[in-house]
Write a structure and sequence with these properties.
This protein is of the alpha+beta class and 271 residues long. The protein is 30% helix and 17% strand. α2 packs antiparallel against α3. It is elongated and about 200 Å long.
Length: 271
């Protein structure tokens, strides 16, 4: 009895499966009518308008605007504020200090017979000295080097002196416009003095030795000949030593073009 029921149930299920399969094959496939979810553009969300605030009431959570400051009307007759004035409550800005203008260097002009003199000296405390060319009086100090001032030069001669420096020979400036500039290369006064001494002693000693040697030759005296040779050698050495001393002790004066205008020659007058 149970077997018959099982077979009947199995046959019923089988018939249902077969009939369902046949029905699904007969139905045409359905075409989706809506676009894919990935390409669909979402519709904008419509939000209902917020209800407006009640008249005369400020919305909750919104800060109240400050009330405008009430300014008192200006008193009659008061002067209006100057344009560009700083508003009230602002500290005044101090004006920038004025830069003083650099005064222009005064221009020195020379009168007739004068010249603007500039003297550059290699020694300290040098002075420009001048005297009248006609009267040949004593030299007077005119200005301290570098001078740079107007000097009356017409009819006058000048020289430069300094402590420890050989005084230059005299020279003259030309009057006129512009600057008369000279360069003084001072020599050592001590070296010049020693050079003059050795030269003054060497020349007569050499001459005396030459004379003694000549006399000894004439008289056939070997003693005089020997003394003459010694004197001649000693005088020659003294003259040779004096030459570099005189060169070191000489003072040269040159103009702005580099031309030599005064040269201190060796002289025994300074002894």
């Amino acid at each position: 009895m149970r077997r018959q029921q099982t077979r009947a149930t199995f046959a019923l299920l089988l018939s249902l499966v077969v009939s369902g399969t046949a029905w699904s094959q007969e139905q045409p496939p359905r075409v989706p009518t809506s676009p894919p979810a990935s390409s669909a553009v979402p519709a904008p969300a419509v939000t209902p308008p917020a209800p407006g605030p009640a008249p005369g009431a400020a919305p909750v959570g919104t800060p109240l605007a400050p009330a405008p400051a009430v300014t008192a009307p200006a008193a009659p007759g008061a002067a209006p504020a100057a344009p560009g004035a700083a508003p009230a409550g602002t500290p005044p800005v101090a004006p920038a200090p004025a830069v003083p203008a650099t005064p222009a260097a005064p221009r020195i002009t020379a009168s007739p017979g004068e010249a603007i003199v500039h003297v550059a000296v290699s020694h300290r405390d040098a002075w420009l000295e001048m005297r009248d060319y006609v009267d040949q009086g004593e030299f007077q100090r005119v200005c301290r080097a570098p001078c740079d001032q107007r000097v009356l030069v017409q009819g006058r001669e000048a020289r430069v002196s300094a402590p420890g420096m050989t005084t230059s020979n005299v020279f003259r400036f030309d009057a006129g416009a512009g600057t008369a500039a000279v360069r003084v290369d001072g020599g050592s006064a001590k070296a010049r003095r020693y050079g003059i001494i050795t030269l003054a002693l060497g020349i007569p000693v050499a001459l005396g030795g030459m004379a003694m040697y000549a006399i000894g030759k004439v008289k056939k005296s070997s003693g005089l000949e020997g003394a003459g040779i010694a004197g001649l050698a000693l005088g020659g050495v003294s003259v040779v030593v004096s030459l570099p001393l005189l060169l070191v002790g000489s003072t040269n004066v040159k103009d702005a073009k580099g031309s030599l205008i005064a040269f201190s020659e060796p002289s025994t007058s300074s002894l």
